[in-house]
Design a protein that fits this description.
One of its GO terms (cellular component) is ESCRT I complex. The chain has 442 residues and is of the alpha+beta class. Among the domains are: 197 residues, Ubiquitin Conjugating Enzyme, CATH 3.10.110.10; 61 residues. The protein contains nine helices and six strands. The strands form two sheets. It has a four-stranded antiparallel beta sheet. It has a two-stranded antiparallel ribbon with strand order 5-6. Helix 8 runs antiparallel to helix 9. The longest helix is centred in the last third of the chain and has 104 residues. It is rod-shaped, with a radius of gyration of 55 Å.
Length: 442
């Protein structure tokens, strides 16, 4: 693990999602090497302060064929990435914020990426890329001309209703400047960075005056940067100082000039007007395109949600169709089984009716003929079993009569001796008959 990673992890340990925040910052620093992290105090609108990570540096943009560096600050909330970062454009003392739909007068960045921030899909790398694209279409700052008087200090940075004004570590009195490890990217400096020059009479629109041609200063080399650091932006001052001289020379020229010079001035004026109209047209086109893209994204989002709902309903309908088909198949099987049972029941009812009719026509059956046997041995055995059962009943009734004093004891003993002897003989014959018939013992 690198020293920078260890430092970031140690500083954002109080973050709710410290791991995801650390990975998001690492990816951003890998893509934007002009940004450096620091821990500073941020004051919210309700007055409470929190120590949050601030990514300071510049974002490189390309505007009308020239490259510029835009100074920015990206504040990460404690619950990052659940909440959107707070982004500002931080102009230097020689610059002013150019208000637009993307940046307000205080420098707060207002992009669809921030307003539509979603945890899990949005990240800092995509946010900075969107900022670069938006700033390349319409730069958020411009250099203030020296002829316009004293340069006002950079405005304070109040946030939107859910936040309060930005307070740096030096102004809050409780700043947190933890030591940073050595980082390969260059140090964050904005005092010598060139920015597009716009007319100062109307800073809100950012377009040049009609009598001055808009010039885009080129990026200074190392020697020019040293001269700029020592004496300010010399190219801009020289250009601004040359304007009164040119105007004075034009005023000193005679009113009557050759037609060729008048035509040249007229052509130059027309070219400047055409260029201004072209810039205005491009700005309008970019604004319209951005609005159309935003509406298209909203339409696509609504369409995707509707498609997802329709797909969910389709899956539910398909599942219901399969369930209904299974229920129909089970009902058909049950119907076949019920029809078969109905056929069997009808046949059994017909047979019962026939038997009942036959029994009704046969009349009463004698008791002795109700039970028949297949062999004479079985018939003899049946008679002996019936006689033995009758003797058992007679003995029972004799005991019952003696108990109720119907007969006396001598009579009871006499009949019991006779019946018991007969019962014994019958049981012996029954056992012998069962052995001959190969019946099991009972």
């Amino acid at each position: 693990m690198s020293e920078l990673s260890q430092w970031i992890q140690s500083q954002i340990s109080h973050y709710i999602f410290a791991g995801e925040t650390e990975r998001d910052v690492q990816r951003l620093l890998a893509s934007q090497r002009n940004l450096r992290p620091s821990m500073e105090r941020y004051t919210f609108m309700d007055g409470h302060e929190e120590t949050m990570m601030c990514l300071k540096g510049t974002l490189p943009i390309s505007y009308r064929g020239a490259s510029y560096n835009i100074p920015v600050e990206i504040w990460l909330c404690i619950d990052h990435p659940s909440s959107a970062p707070i982004c500002y454009v931080v102009p230097t003392s020689t610059m002013r914020v150019r208000p637009s739909e993307r940046v307000d007068a205080n420098g707060m960045v207002m992009l669809p990426t921030l307003s539509q921030w979603q945890s899990g899909t949005s990240n800092l790398t995509d946010l900075t890329q969107d900022m670069v694209r938006a700033f390349s279409i319409q730069p958020p700052v411009f250099s203030q001309s020296s002829s316009s008087g004293a340069t006002p200090p950079p405005p304070s940075q109040p946030s939107q209703p859910s936040h309060s004004s930005y307070s740096s570590s030096s102004s809050s009195g409780g700043g947190y400047n933890a030591p940073l490890p050595a980082i390969p990217p260059a140090a964050y400096t904005t005092s010598n960075l060139p920015y597009p020059v716009f007319g100062t009479n109307n800073p809100g629109t950012g377009f040049p005056q009609s009598n001055a041609r808009m010039q885009m200063p080129s990026l200074p080399n190392a020697a020019e940067q040293h001269r700029i650091a020592q004496g300010g932006y010399m190219q801009q001052q020289s250009w601004q100082q040359s304007q009164p001289q040119q105007l004075q020379q034009q005023q000193q020229q005679p009113l009557t000039q050759p037609p060729v010079q008048a035509k040249a001035r007229e052509a130059q004026s027309n070219a400047e007007a055409d260029e201004e109209q072209q810039v205005l047209l491009e700005s309008i086109k970019s604004a319209v395109a951005e609005r159309l893209r935003e509406k298209l994204r909203n339409k696509l989002s609504d369409a995707e949600e509707r498609i997802q709902l329709l797909q969910q309903e389709n899956r539910e309908l398909i599942s219901g169709r399969d369930q209904v088909n299974r229920m129909l198949a089970n009902m058909e099987e049950e119907q076949v089984k019920l029809e078969e049972n109905c056929v069997r029941l009808d046949a059994a009812m017909d047979e019962i009716k026939r038997n009942m009719a036959r029994l009704a026509s046969a009349g009463d059956i004698p008791v002795d003929q109700a039970v028949t046997t297949s062999t004479p041995l079985y018939k003899q055995l049946l008679q002996m079993v019936a006689e033995e059962s009758a003797l058992e009943d007679a003995l029972y009734h004799l005991a019952n009569a003696l108990q109720h004093h119907v007969i006396d004891l001598p009579v009871f003993v006499k009949h019991v001796r006779t019946l018991s002897l007969r019962q014994f003989m019958l049981r012996a014959k029954i056992k012998k008959a069962r052995d001959v018939a190969h019946l099991r013992d009972i």
